[in-house]
Amino acid sequence: MASTPDCATAFSAALLELARTDERICIVNNDSAETHSALGFQSELPDRFVDVGIAEQNLVGVAIGMANAGLRPFVYSASCFMASRALEQIKNAAYTNANVVFCGFVSGLAYGALGGTHHAVEDLAWMRAIPRMTVLAPATPVDTVAALREALTHDGPVYIRIVSKLDTPELFPADHGFAYGGSEQLREGEDVTLVGTGLLTSRLVEAADLLAADGVRAGVLHLGSVQPIDAEAIGRAAARTGRLVVAEDHVLNGGLGGAVAETVVRTHPVPVLQIGVPNEYAPIGPAEFLYEHFGLTPQGIAKRVREWLA
Amino acid sequence: MSSQDVALVRRQAARARALALTTVSTAGTGHIGADLSAMDILCSLYFSVLRGGPEDPDRDRFILSKAHASAAMYSVLALKGILPEAELSTFGGADSRLSTVVSTRVPGIEFNTGSLGHGLSLGAGAALAARVQGSGRRTFVLTGDGELQEGSNWEAAMLAASRKLSSLVVVVDRNLAQKGASTEDINALEPLEDKWRSFGWGVRTVDGHDVEALLDVFHGAPLEESRPTCVIASTVKGKGVSFMERNLEWHSRRLTPDLLDQALRELEHGIDA
Description:
heterodimer, A: alpha/beta, Rossmann fold, 12 helices, B: Rossmann fold, two-stranded antiparallel ribbon, globular
């Protein structure tokens, strides 16, 4: 599959395009315009671009204050800083039902050798613990732009976990729409269903291809909407294949694996294999090295699935 | 500002004190000391300064960062006709809208505050939004003094000055007390004027129970061109009720019916004036 511009670049380009005609759209960011491809927005629409400096609590508070006036602020930050340091402000944004879109860039292990302070592998658990918070984790550039369009029409706060610095192959046609609370069945399969979100979805598709070569018929289910979650699709997959594998660049506690496990326990209990970051901090190394270390590559996933099914 | 405004604010403040005292006494919960220290500030804003009702999108914004002064806030909203006065008796009760720190369930409340130190960031955002929208509306934030120990205030203070948010006014309810102790003993705020000034704000300290002084500074803000304004309002916790004034036990102490009667008798003169 051909490589495309990364999700973050596509997101920021689409936001600027939308902002040219939608005067409600603002960016509030923490000294990170260049990192998150927002320099174009900053130079073209400076009045609607607020840089609060390195101050995440204020970052989120300012955005809530702007939303109160009917504006549509997009909070631009690396997810590791925003989702953790400003978690209480984010919680109160949800309590207030503020129309703020929290854009968590450089998600997962993408910051690589910067180490544990910069890895964002707890954000799904934190965000989906918050009532009213919509949590989206798109998989590809087209999916990311579709998630942006969905967030803009949504009433209430939205957290979008955005893939940065790592390329993902495109899986969707240009006119793809994002299904709030829905899912995408990307491969049909009978033996097992591979369930993913964000960066891992395209890797699951490749893993399914590797497994097919071994005669394992693996379905692939993309849950771009982590909260609300498509319980019906998860139940269908559980009923059809009897086993689920969830892969994510997130800790095993409370992320997508947790969400899927909670769902099948209520609807159609089946064994669930979780592949992700165990209860430990990553070693030092570039991002791809870390993804290999935790088995979050197509090869690593296929290997774990083969072992589990054997 | 007119002398009629001063008289009206004083009269409403006495009424609102009586309502707040009755509210917390009935409920057996609340933060009456903070309610009373903030009351003259609240009434000055609501009965003379703030423009536009809750439905007006271009209304001045008011943010109660010291959200535990909720009985005061709800009493003022009741006197404004925004909240039914009868509803005050549900304060903190089962299925009431009136949480004991203010919330957006109540008409006229802009944000869910209550976790201290959040209000100034919200206010900076509100003032930035007014600028984006080309509006001359103003934003007022009422913060307690103890909550200035939260670092996010200073993040917001820095930004507001950096962005020259002259439409933003923060009022510090400087009652010198946090729960049962002095701010200066726990984590000292002084020299507080110097702190704000060094952050780039125009600053004035006023008597937070002198309605004329409050109206003068609120109507006249900004104090300095292109700068946000900080009004340090020197107040007395429990103000207006002799046995509560300066008595730190009254941060959240229960008000018995006998004591309520005594307090209401003290306020009668102000209401009739």
